[in-house]
Design brief:
Layout (H helix, E strand, L loop, with lengths): L4 E8 L2 H17 L4 H19 L6 E9 L3 E10 L9 H10 L2 E5 L6 E7 L17
Helix pairs in contact: 1-2, 2-3
Length: 138
């Protein structure tokens, strides 16, 4: 894996397709050596922030998600390409949940459409040797 590999995903902005973003995040986090709990935290965080962008009923358009894999963790950037304008926001509960699950998060409306950002850093876990992820440095 290079210092910053990238995986891109584009799905319809409806709830039944957001699971693909969760599965992708979980697979990539596992590959980076995240612990089981860290993977689950990331899956929940992806759910919260995607629903903040699309709403619980979804939107007409596409949700584009970029996963940037780095040596210390995962950065997830999402952008909505929606027809029609609707403000994006997180509920107070979603803010609390995201604060507990990830290291950084933001969501906003922008000139290019609504977007979000999540950062989840890998913390050394039980399977790590000298701070290396399983399979790293071999």
């Amino acid at each position: 894996m290079s210092s910053q590999d990238e995986v891109r995903l584009a799905v319809p902005a409806r709830p039944e397709f957001l699971g693909l973003a969760r599965v992708t995040a979980a697979g990539l986090a596992g590959r980076l050596g995240f612990t089981f709990d860290q993977v689950e935290d990331l899956r929940l965080a992806i759910d919260e922030i995607c629903f903040g962008l699309t709403g619980s009923k979804g939107r007409d358009g596409i949700l584009e998600v970029r996963f940037l894999l780095g040596p210390d963790g995962l950065i997830v950037n999402g952008r909505g390409r929606f027809s029609g304008a609707a403000p994006v926001h997180l509920s107070e509960l979603s803010e609390v949940i995201l604060n507990a699950l990830v290291d950084e998060h933001s969501i906003s409306d922008g000139a290019g459409g609504p977007h979000f950002r999540l950062v989840k850093r890998r913390q050394p876990g039980k399977g790590d040797v000298d701070g290396q992820a399983p399979g790293e440095g071999q």
